[in-house]
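Both lines are retained for reference:
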Amino acid sequence: MDDLVREWTAQLLDSGNIAALIAGLVALFLVLSRNTWPLLRNVVTIAHEGGHAVIALLSGRKLNGIRLHSDTSGLTLSTGKPTGPGMVFTLLAGYPAVSLLGLGGAWLVTADLARMMLWACIALLVAMLLAIRNAYGVLSIVVTGGVIFAVSWFATPAWQALCCALFSWFLLFGGLRPIAELRRKRSAGRASQSDADQLARLTGLPAGAWLAIWFLVGLATLAVGARWLLLMPQV
């Protein structure tokens, strides 16, 4: 079985390879399935809140903490000027962060750097753990990091490449579904404090426009990431 996986994952750099396509289809199923999405959405929330936290720090705001909840929602608390570019970019960063992480993962996989991707994920999770302020958040980070560590430590390079391809696809697809979910919540009047609504109040640009921007960014990263995973020639 491992020889078969090694053969498939060795083709990840080949044009139109079947291994990457299968990984993509599995990831799409995990995102669309009502059985798997409620659990795996925690991973998307981690990436989302991590995006808020990184941009808050880069914009000069003080990061007060991150909370991850069992309903897969999250909250990143920072202090600083309540208006202006720093606040705008902090609110803007969450949804694109998921897709951009997936894009970065796709690049690392096709560059034959799957192990580096795994350790980079672990390092980011450890850094994020320092900012977590609730028990469920700690559990989410530890479980996610534990799975990634197990793959990095025990899996063969072939399995590592396949798992990283699957993870990259999952983030690329998973970055789109929460935007659609937010649109439905807003239509039902249940998301007045969403990132999009806060951005609308700060900038004057309608919340729907921010949703459209995030969705277009998600589609663009999915297109580029898919091309890297499926169509890049072997190097």
Q: What stands out?
A: Residues 120 and 225 are 18 Å apart (CA to CA).
